[in-house]
Write a structure and sequence with these properties.
With 157 residues, the chain is mainly alpha-helical. The chain has two domains: 84 residues, Winged helix-like DNA-binding domain superfamily/Winged helix DNA-binding domain (Arc Repressor Mutant, subunit A, Orthogonal Bundle); 67 residues. It has six helices and three strands. Strands 1-3-2 form a three-stranded antiparallel sheet. The two termini are 34 Å apart.
């Protein structure tokens, strides 16, 4: 593994660990699979060897990623070993989760704004102004995500 590849794996692993709450090994495995540009798939044994991890740790990470539908596996007709790779719709799944979270936050922010407006009876309250700005941002972001998801679905189909 060359230094550029190692650095990319480490950078993506840090991202997935911080922003998707993956365990460190799970983050590294997902990053490694994500960067498999040939998309042929990686064997379980190769992952154990590359990350110098126990079989049970690698197995647990693969199970988590499979359950999230971020990865999939296949077997070739003439081989017994599974080949793991990133699922073709993994990005779509991640974006839909983000969209859902942002929509929930927008709904909560709207409820908060109504609560403050009801209590303060002052439309000029700085909390209302801040809420309006934030709700507008969330609305635009959710719309943009919906557009991106729609485009990805068209490519996936």
């Amino acid at each position: 593994m060359d230094d550029i590849f190692k650095d990319l794996i480490e950078s993506y692993a840090n991202y997935f660990e911080a922003h998707h709450n993956f365990a460190p090994l799970t983050s590294k495995i997902y990053s490694y699979l994500f960067l498999d540009y040939k998309e042929e798939g990686i064997t379980f044994d190769e992952l154990v060897e590359v990350f110098n991890a126990s079989k049970s740790s690698v197995s647990n990470s693969l199970t988590v990623l499979t359950q999230l539908r971020y990865i999939e596996y296949s077997t070739k007709i003439d081989h017994r070993k599974r080949l793991y790779r990133v699922a073709p719709n993994a990005t779509l799944i991640r974006l839909e989760k983000i969209q859902h979270l942002l929509q929930l936050e927008k709904n909560l922010s709207e409820r908060y704004r109504s609560f403050i407006l009801d209590r303060s009876k002052n439309a000029e309250d700085h909390r209302i102004t801040k809420s309006d700005i934030y709700i507008d941002h969330l609305s635009n972001t959710v719309k943009q995500l919906a557009f991106t998801i729609q485009k990805l679905k068209a490519v996936h189909n």
